[in-house]
Amino acid sequence: MSRARRLTVALLSAAALLASAPATAVAAGHSEHGPGTHGSGGAAHTGVYPDAFARAGYAPKAVDAKIGAAWQQLFHGDPGTAPTHGDGQTLYYQLTPDMAYVEDIGNQDVRTEGMGYAMMLAVQLGHKHEFDSLWNFAKSKMQIQSGPEQYYFAWHTDTTGKVIDSGVAPDGDQWIAAALDFASGRWGDGTGIYSYGHESQQILHAMWHESDNGGVDMFDRTSHLPTFSPPFAVGYTDPSYSLPGFYRLFAKADPADASLWNSAVTAGEALLQKAADPRTGLAPDYANFDGTPYMRSTESPTDNAYDHNFQEDAWRAIANVNVDAAWFGVKPWQTTYSNTLERFFQGQGVTTYVSRYHLDGTPLAQGQNTYEPAHAQGLVAMNSTSAISATDRGRTDFVRDLWNTPVPSGQARYYDGMLYLLGMLYDSGNFRIWAPAAPGHH
């Protein structure tokens, strides 16, 4: 859920070294040539993940060390000075021996978005203690245990776990469910809340069936797209919430709803195409179900409102396109999408572009979070993933920009830090399919 709009909606509504991948992962190796998955069916079928860092000339040992250092800083670095932690490095705080949270430093709270990212980073990198600690917090403090929103998660709490708003942010719930599914595949299921596969399936099933209990479904049954924020703001969507690569796996994890998840794959791909401006590749933060920018009655196309411009939420749509391409094969529309986006940002200056734009490419002002760098590390990371499906000669420029970007620290390290470490995994071929029911997984 967006940082700029979260409070408004509330009113309305990943040095530790990179863990080696066991043979049971869908991870036979990396591709060091071209986009890697063109015509191949993607890593889900070949076991070969595109490695944009290798293509750019970086040695595997250097990549592993860089990822390990980023994990160490963002999960076990300097905690910073209480109570704000604004001068620190880590995002991960151990509340009890078996419970931990990731903090949004700028807002001094805990959000399902960050918890889902952190859980996924932990399972990808093989850190089970951190994973279980995060899951324990999410399960016991954030998950709604009864009523019409049962198995959804309250989108944010304070750092003790006290719920601030019981509204739901679908991005967080989807990432938590995907991380649990992958934990089941990587580590196997335990008992109780550590029966990861069961917990994942329960969450996924609820996304389509809360209406059976008098609640509101997370996915719109007509468009098959995730709504912005149940139970209240459900008349529009957020392109960055569409995760077709995840949905292909959710159809295996939640077989009773496989047809619905398969429809969500088609709908999500279509939305990611339609929402992107054909001139720039920029998508809006929020969109109507037909892909047009979402605007409130008080807004106009030329204003700087968060809803219909390219800002923090929309950065993630770039990676959503390219994770799907890496896992399931590059499609022509994904190449067109990434080439268009790269040409726009090449024109803005690869190492100097700003991070917020009107969809036509006109830069916006810095915005409310003035402590963030203008060339934000989170967008740098997301833009670098375009190299997975792009074919233009300049695609490695964006990968080098991420390589040369330091690990985020200080007050802005929450969102940028999570996207930075995810981007490192995406670009190195280390964002892998661990789902037990995934194609090729044994």
TrEMBL record:
<protein>
    <submittedName>
        <fullName>Oligosaccharide reducing-end xylanase</fullName>
    </submittedName>
</protein>
<dbReference type="Pfam" id="PF01270">
    <property type="entry name" value="Glyco_hydro_8"/>
</dbReference>
<dbReference type="GO" id="GO:0045493">
    <property type="term" value="P:xylan catabolic process"/>
</dbReference>
<dbReference type="InterPro" id="IPR002037">
    <property type="entry name" value="Glyco_hydro_8"/>
</dbReference>
<keyword id="KW-0858">Xylan degradation</keyword>
<keyword id="KW-0732">Signal</keyword>
<keyword id="KW-0624">Polysaccharide degradation</keyword>
<keyword id="KW-0326">Glycosidase</keyword>
<comment type="similarity">
    <text>Belongs to the glycosyl hydrolase 8 (cellulase D) family.</text>
</comment>
<dbReference type="GO" id="GO:0004553">
    <property type="term" value="F:hydrolase activity, hydrolyzing O-glycosyl compounds"/>
</dbReference>
<dbReference type="InterPro" id="IPR008928">
    <property type="entry name" value="6-hairpin_glycosidase_sf"/>
</dbReference>
<dbReference type="InterPro" id="IPR012341">
    <property type="entry name" value="6hp_glycosidase-like_sf"/>
</dbReference>
<feature type="signal peptide">
    <location>
        <begin position="1"/>
        <end position="27"/>
    </location>
</feature>
<keyword id="KW-0119">Carbohydrate metabolism</keyword>
<keyword id="KW-0378">Hydrolase</keyword>
